[in-house]
Every structure is written in structure tokens, then in C-alpha cells.
């Protein structure tokens, strides 16, 4: 590929996406606050830099894989941001989950500088990022899609082209996050209740996987509970943020969202109990604390 791409944010998702782009033949540069993350990119064949501007210098595309809207704004418009380094006509792809109104605002500001903006939040986790099989919920101008099409194909199994206005992608991602957050909370509640009842959790997991109560999140997160391993593949704080955005949108729209609200309270409580940086399956540990239930690798439900 003749395009040069800067990947800003080389965590578990961003590094996997950068590797997928390298495998597809793109010239990839990258930036991350972590020296280890930068070294990982270098070892994979990319070029690592200390700032977003340095990484994006002369690039056709800047792919921002950071946590939230504030970080995205800093990557784009902050000191040493990519807006100062990208040539006019380049594409900025935002993969972060954020409120639709903020996505529209960032897109308008980028457009005023002669940059295309693709609102393209992602789903699929670190494993699919590394294999180039993400699901992308994207909206933006036809020109942005045309310029970014090769890169999107390299990192995603499915690109949902949702419209020509930034903000639509963000809206669809919030619907996904509502469901994902509720499903994780429900899975943690169910498995901790199973433990309280003295059931064999491995057996329960196998039964539910083949039954109507299964969900992608149940199947993906329950193994963390079974192994007693809460290494943060997706942290509790992510859903504190995302379900918080869902509640903000629901309030603005005068839309009742009591199930999402109840799930948000469990994420908030888990964070308040000192587990905000741990894997989001840690909701099970909070349920265990509240009920005096013993989980695998977690005597008495203590964090």
C-alpha cells in the first residue's frame, strides 16, 4: 500500500490494529505514552514517535485509538496534535466511544482545517484487533470513506457504513455499549448467584453456552470469573464512562433507561470498591462481596 498511516494509541487495541495494517502492507508510524508500547510497534516493523504530530507527519491517515472524547480532542487539536502535521485532505479516523454531539463537533473543527473526519468506533476486543477482524460502526463523508477504505479493510471483518454524517457511528456504538454493559452485569450476577447456590460454575457455564440465556458477553467474560483472573482486558471504568454517556443521552431525549441505569450503578459500585482498573468481569467480585459468596481464586469475594 502506498498510504502512510499513523496509529495514535498503542494499547491492546491500537497495537493490534497497527500490526494488521503492517501485515496489509501499509507504512505505519505510531505514538503512545508508554515506551513499552512504542517498542512493541518498532519490533513489529513500524516507526514509533513520542508525539501524535511527529507520528502523523506526512501521513495520509491518522487512526486515533484512545479511550474517550477528551483524549481524542487532545490527539487531534492539542499541543503536538495531528491537526498540525497532517496535510490537507488527509483523513482522521476516530475509534473512541463518545457522545454523538462531541463527534459532530470534532468533525466540524477538523473540516474547517481541511481534514476529513471518520466517526468510526470499534467493537470486537483485543483478539479481533490483532487478527484484523473488528466490527466498525462508521459514518462520514464519501470522500473520507474512499480515502480510508483500504485501511478499514485491513483492520475489520465488517465495516458498517452508517451514513455521511459524523455522529451516527457514535450513536450506534452507544446502543451496542448499552447492550454490552447490561449483558456483562447480568452474566456476573447470574454466575455469582450460581456460586452462592453451590453449583459447579464450569458446568453452569457449559450449560448456558448452549442455552437461550447465552450472550456473546457471557461466553467471553465468564471464563475470567472461572479462572479468577481479572487482568484488565476491558476495565470497569470503560463502562462507567460508556453507560454514563447512555444515561446522559437518555436524559436529553427524555427516554427511560432503567436497566442501563441499574447496570451503571453496579459498575460505579465496583469502581468505588477499588476495582475500577480491573477487568469488567469484576462486577462478579462485587456481587460476591455483597453476598458473602466465594468465587474461584477469590476467597470471600475480596478484591
Task: Describe it.
With 303 residues, this protein is an alpha/beta fold. It has 2 domains: 162 residues, NAD(P)-binding Rossmann-like Domain (Rossmann fold, 3-Layer(aba) Sandwich); 132 residues, N-(1-d-carboxylethyl)-l-norvaline Dehydrogenase, domain 2 (Orthogonal Bundle). The chain contains 13 helices and 9 strands. The strands form 2 sheets. Strands 3-2-1-4-5-6 form a 6-stranded parallel beta sheet, with helices on both faces. The chain has a 3-stranded mixed beta sheet with strand order 7-8-9.
**How are helices and strands ordered from N to C?**
EHEHEHEHEHEEHEHEHHHHHH
What's the name of the CATH homologous superfamily of the largest domain?
A: NAD(P)-binding Rossmann-like Domain
**Individual helix count:** 13
Number of domains: 2
Per CATH, the class of the largest domain reads Alpha Beta
Helix content bin = 40-55%
- Beta strands, count: 9
Amino acid at each position: 500500500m502506498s498510504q502512510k498511516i499513523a496509529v495514535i494509541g498503542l494499547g491492546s487495541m491500537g497495537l493490534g490494529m497497527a500490526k494488521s495494517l503492517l501485515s496489509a502492507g501499509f507504512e505505519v508510524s505510531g505514538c503512545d505514552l508508554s515506551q513499552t508500547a512504542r517498542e512493541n510497534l518498532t519490533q513489529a516493523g513500524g516507526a514509533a514517535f513520542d508525539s501524535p504530530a511527529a507520528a502523523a507527519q506526512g501521513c495520509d491517515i491518522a487512526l486515533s485509538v484512545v479511550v474517550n472524547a477528551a483524549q481524542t480532542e487532545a490527539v487531534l487539536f492539542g499541543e503536538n496534535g495531528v491537526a498540525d502535521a497532517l496535510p490537507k485532505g488527509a483523513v482522521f479516523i476516530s475509534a473512541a466511544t463518545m457522545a454523538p454531539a462531541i463527534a459532530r463537533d470534532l468533525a466540524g473543527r477538523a473540516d474547517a482545517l481541511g481534514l476529513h473526519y471518520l466517526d468510526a468506533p470499534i467493537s470486537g476486543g483485543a483478539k479481533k484487533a490483532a487478527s484484523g477482524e473488528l466490527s466498525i460502526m462508521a459514518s462520514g463523508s464519501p470522500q473520507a470513506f474512499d480515502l480510508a477504505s483500504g485501511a478499514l479493510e485491513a483492520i475489520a471483518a465488517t465495516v458498517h457504513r452508517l451514513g455521511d454524517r459524523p455522529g451516527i457511528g457514535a450513536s450506534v456504538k452507544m446502543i451496542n455499549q448499552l447492550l454490552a454493559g447490561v449483558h456483562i452485569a447480568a452474566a456476573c450476577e447470574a454466575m455469582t448467584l450460581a456460586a452462592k447456590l453451590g453449583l459447579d460454575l464450569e458446568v453452569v457455564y457449559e450449560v448456558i453456552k448452549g442455552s437461550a440465556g447465552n450472550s456473546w458477553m457471557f461466553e467471553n467474560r465468564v471464563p475470567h470469573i472461572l479462572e479468577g483472573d481479572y487482568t484488565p482486558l476491558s476495565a470497569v471504568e470503560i463502562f462507567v464512562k460508556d453507560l454514563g454517556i447512555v444515561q446522559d443521552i437518555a436524559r436529553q431525549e427524555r427516554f427511560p433507561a432503567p436497566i442501563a441505569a441499574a447496570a451503571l450503578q453496579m459498575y460505579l459500585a465496583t469502581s468505588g470498591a477499588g476495582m475500577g482498573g480491573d477487568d469488567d468481569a469484576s462486577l462478579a467480585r462485587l456481587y460476591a462481596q455483597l453476598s458473602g459468596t466465594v468465587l474461584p481464586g477469590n476467597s470471600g469475594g475480596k478484591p
